[in-house]
Structures are given as structure tokens and as C-alpha cells.
Amino acid sequence: MGGHKSEPYKIPDPNIYKIEDVSELKNVQKELAKRGLKDPWLRNYVWRYQSTQSVFMRNIVCLTRGWKLGVPAFLITLGIEQYFGIDYGHGHHDEGHH
């Protein structure tokens, strides 16, 4: 569908996520063990605690999100206003009026 070729999505191996790498989840695991419980799906939350980007890069991505569509839309709007002579100036500043 779509007419373009792309590589199929690669599903990561679940064994790359280890609870031992995340101290918060390790604490949850210990608390569950104290009560005789075990969460077999706990490793599914490891990715939430592992950051692959620096704080600076996350902030840049957050601040620039939407620019790809926003900047061209802004420029098109300016062009249309110039072409049709649209002016949003205040009408009470006419020449000769003091």
C-alpha cells in the first residue's frame, strides 16, 4: 500500500531490556518479592526509564516540533497577504488626523 518500498519494522529482542539496568524497577521487583509476588511483564517498562537522547536534544526536539509545517504555512500566509494587499493596521491612524 502507498506505492513506496520501505524496510519492514524491526521488532527488538525483548531480552535487551533488563530490570537490573533501572533502579526504580529493581525496587518495584524487590517490593513485590517481599509480598511473594512477581511481575513477569515488568521488563516491558524498562524503555521508559532508559533515555537515548540528552536533555538538550529532547528540549530542541520539543521546541522545534511542528516547524516543518508551521514555517511554510506562515510564509504562504505572508505571501497571500502581500498579493491581496491585506493590511491589519489600525484604522484610527489616518493621515491628516491629529
UniProtKB/TrEMBL annotation:
Location(s), subcellular: Mitochondrion inner membrane
Membrane topology field: Single-pass membrane protein
A single Gene Ontology CC term: mitochondrial inner membrane
Keywords from the named record: Electron transport, Membrane, Mitochondrion, Mitochondrion inner membrane, Respiratory chain, Transmembrane, Transmembrane helix, Transport, Ubiquinone
Keyword hit for Transmembrane helix: yes
Function: Accessory subunit of the mitochondrial membrane respiratory chain NADH dehydrogenase (Complex I), that is believed not to be involved in catalysis. Complex I functions in the transfer of electrons from NADH to the respiratory chain. The immediate electron acceptor for the enzyme is believed to be ubiquinone.
Family, per entry: Belongs to the complex I NDUFB3 subunit family.
Protein name: NADH dehydrogenase [ubiquinone] 1 beta subcomplex subunit 3
Species for this entry: Camponotus floridanus (Florida carpenter ant)
